[in-house]
C-alpha cells in the first residue's frame, strides 16, 4: 500500500470502499495490540483475540462516517474508543452469561494512550522505528510511533509482542507487567530481552548499517 493514512482518509470519505479497506488493513496490527492488552485476564480466556479484532474492524467500517478527525493521531484516539466500547460490551455480556447473583463486569485493562512510552528510553526505540522507514512516501507521512511499534512487533511471538507493547507503549515496569500477566519479574525480563533481540534483527537502519539500540537492561 503506497497511500498514506491522510490520503486514505480523504479517499474513504469520498466513498471509495477500497480506500476504507486499505485504511482498516493499515491499522489492523494497532487494533490487535490495543485489544490484546485491553482484555482482562478472565475475559481473555473466554473470547478469541482474532474475533474481537474482526468485530472491531466491522465497527470501524460501520461508524466511519461519524469520524471527523483530520490527523492520524485523531484516528488512533477514535479507534481506541471503539475498542474500549467493544471490550466493555463483551465484559458486560459475559458477566450476564454467568447468571450469578451480584456478578460484576469482567476486568478490562486500560488501553494505552497515544504518545505513551517509557520516557527517554522508550522514545529512543520509537524514534528508531520512525527512522527505519526508508520509503520517501513513508517518511513524508510522519507516521504515529505507536502504529510503527504495533507493526514492528506483529511478527514476534505473542508473549514477546505483549511485553514490549506494555513496556514501551503503556510505560509499565517489569514488575507491573508481571502482575498483569501473572508472571515473575525475572520471567518478564527474559521475555523482554528475547523480544527486543528479535525486534532489532528485523529493524533496518538508515544508510550506514543496521540500527543499534542499548536496551538499558543493566539499569533494570
Textual characterization of the structure:
- The protein is mostly helical.
- It has two domains: 1-111, RNA polymerase sigma factor, region 2, helix turn helix motif (Rna Polymerase Sigma Factor, Chain: A, Orthogonal Bundle); 112-209, Arc Repressor Mutant, subunit A.
- Helix content is 64%, strand content 0%.
- The radius of gyration is 18 Å and the shape is globular.
CATH class membership of the largest domain: Mainly Alpha
Structural class: mainly alpha
**Envelope shape:** globular
- What is the CATH third-level topology name of the largest domain? Rna Polymerase Sigma Factor, Chain: A
Shape-level CATH architecture of the largest domain: Orthogonal Bundle
Work out the helix count.
12
Q: What is the CA-CA span between the terminal residues?
A: 39 Å
Question: What about the largest sheet?
Answer: none
Count of individual domains: 2
Classify the helix fraction into a percent range.
Answer: 55-70%
Q: Which whole number gives the mean pLDDT?
A: 78
Unreliable residue stretches = 101-108, 134-141, 205-215
- The radius of gyration is 18 Å
